[in-house]
Amino acid sequence: MALEDSSRVDFAALRAERRAKVFSGMDSAALDALILGGAGNVHYVCGARLLGRAGVLPFAPVCVVVRSTRRLHLLSTWDEGVPPEIEREDLYPLSWNPANLMASVAAIPGLREARRVGTDGLTASTGSMISLLAPGAELVDGGALLEARRRVKTNAEITCLEVAAAISESALSAMAAALRPGVSERELLGVYSEHVARLGSPVPPSESVCFVPSGAVALRSVVSDRVVGDGESVVLAPGALYAGYEAGLARTFVVGSSGDVGSLGERGAAGMDALLGACRAGGVGADLYQAWQGVGLGPASVVLAHGLGLGAEPPVIGLGRGRDAVLEEGMVLSVQSWVAEEGAGGCLLRETVVVGSSEPTVLTRYGRS
């Protein structure tokens, strides 16, 4: 898939393109309605700006898509951040009383007549909820439909990912400039958060952006108060969001004393090159396993790659999973190479990659040295 030359994105056209893909999928699957609660799926379908929040919430009917009316309905008490194609009458209010919420959803035109309803999440009461909203309707997996629609990225989506990658790289430069003996992991997190906010990305996708792997073999993802010592290696792994799309990268640095990560760095680079070479359309996840082991790195101790777009997406390749996952041209992957030795620490490389017909396009262009 060719990348767009322009960095400008027509977001109205992008939303229309995504809606068209979803309705086409509903037509093919004979799905009369979709009831969605996953943040990525909701954003993909309606394009509304979602509130940043911490923690995990139970499934709730955040967005309802009705095939007969070609309308989208959103759980919202105001229209701030809601695209203009979703009109005020298409909004239904949040309520602490489940009965009131269900009454609002049940009033959506065309939903009660639905015979096949898809959903991307379940709780113990979801089945009874669907039976109240659409009596007699068959409940099916709507998540699979959204996964198929989201898998291959459009040119506009890849442009959004390029911008997110550029923000990530800028944050990496800011964090690298702050590296010195005595700086703490939490201070580096502060540098990262401030920098992405200055660039207009105030809600970072993760706080797992740095750690000191010296002497350890586990890939740690929680920032601590640990202070960096002279000559120690530090993993910097910032990510960023643009228009909901996430990209990121990781590099490993040595602080203070001159030097590099030595043989770990060489092995990590060899692993990354091998994985990138396997990111070709028509390949499968097993090709990445084979590429990794083909450079003598043995069984992978972490995920080798996963889908990327509106946050982390399928497939997940690594730790015994994803061997049969098919790679398609236009898929975007977060690819990572992690090598470690007891007592010597570890080295992490991570790239955001577009799967190509003959070779991948690496969106993160920050140098490795």
TrEMBL record:
Top-level lineage group: Bacteria
Matches recorded under SUPFAM superfamilies: Creatinase/aminopeptidase, Creatinase/prolidase N-terminal domain
Limits of the Peptidase M24 domain: 160-355
Cross-referenced Gene3D superfamilies: Creatinase/methionine aminopeptidase superfamily, Creatinase/prolidase N-terminal domain
A GO molecular-function annotation: aminopeptidase activity
InterPro entries recorded: Creatin/AminoP/Spt16_N, Creatinase/aminopeptidase-like, Creatinase_N, Pept_M24, Peptidase_M24B
Matching Pfam families: Creatinase_N, Peptidase_M24
Keyword Cell division applies: no
Keywords: Aminopeptidase, Hydrolase, Protease
Creatinase N-terminal domain ranges (all copies): 18-152
Full protein name: Xaa-Pro aminopeptidase
